Amino acid sequence: MGFGTDPQMLIDIKKYKKMFNYNSIIETGTYAGTSSMILSYLFDNVYTCDNSLDEEQIRQERFATRPNITFLLESSLDCLPKFFKEIGDDKFFLFLDAHWNDN
């Protein structure tokens, strides 16, 4: 499930973005990057990570056109502290979507 397959999620994130005026979002569990791409049109900064190489070529092609997406090929455990450090004290949304396998 993600912003590309669940229209209600997209409605909700637009509503909350307007309500809170947050300009950054972190997504864990990038997979092929569909949600990240959608979010990159709504937010100034999209931070996303995934520890799978399965969809790496697709992500590289998609993200090349969207400079506001920061992607790390790492687990959530490793990338979240880096994203938090980069964002600093700014307010942001956190979409925890990494939920596959043993993780």
Describe this structure in words.
This protein is of the alpha/beta class and 103 residues long. 40% of the residues lie in helices and 17% in strands. The chain has 4 helices and 4 strands, in the order αβαβαβαβ. A 4-stranded parallel beta sheet has the order 3-2-1-4, sandwiched between helices. Strand 2, helix 3 and strand 3 form a beta-alpha-beta unit.
**Count of DSSP H/I helices:** 4
Mean of residue pLDDT values: 91
Coarse structural class: alpha/beta
What topology, given as strand order, has the largest sheet? 3-2-1-4
Distance between the termini: 17 Å
Throw out a few tags for this protein.
103 residues, alpha/beta, 4-stranded parallel beta sheet, 4 helices, 4 strands, 40% helix
State the gist of this model:
This protein has 103 residues and is α/β, with parallel strands linked by helices.
Topology readout:
Layout: H1 7-20, E1 24-28, H2 34-40, E2 45-49, H3 56-63, E3 69-72, H4 76-87, E4 93-96
Parallel strand pairs: 1-2, 1-4, 2-3
